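As a next step, the fold was encoded as tokens, giving this record:
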Amino acid sequence: MVYSMCLLIAALMASSFFPSSPALQLPYNLNPAVRSQVEEKWPKILASCPGFKKYAGDMIFDRIEDNRGSDRVSRIDIVVKMGYSSIIPVEYQAIGHTCYYGISQDGKSMSIQDDVCVAVCKDSVIETNGVDYVVAFR
């Protein structure tokens, strides 16, 4: 009985220290259309980014940027800050980095602008040669 209780406590502690995905905390005053799009696509983003689950303990949700209708880009950005621990491999060069994961206007894909952010998402170093990396949602 004591042994099983210790296992339960250990499992609960591990799950709180090492979350299974980065916490998505949407602001209460977020545009309802943006909120709906982000909530709908978040499971697809997690499915497309195995690194998010693996490195969740070192990722901090920062904000949502509604850039729909922008001259430069037209998307909804989920902004995530990388922490300073050693969870994410050093070769990704992600320490302290801010990443923008952009849901396309039509909601069919996500674009990632930076090799560092692609590496964290895909859990692999991928050279993009300065071109946005696009992940199509299924």
Remarks:
- Confidence is low (pLDDT under 50) at residues 1-18.
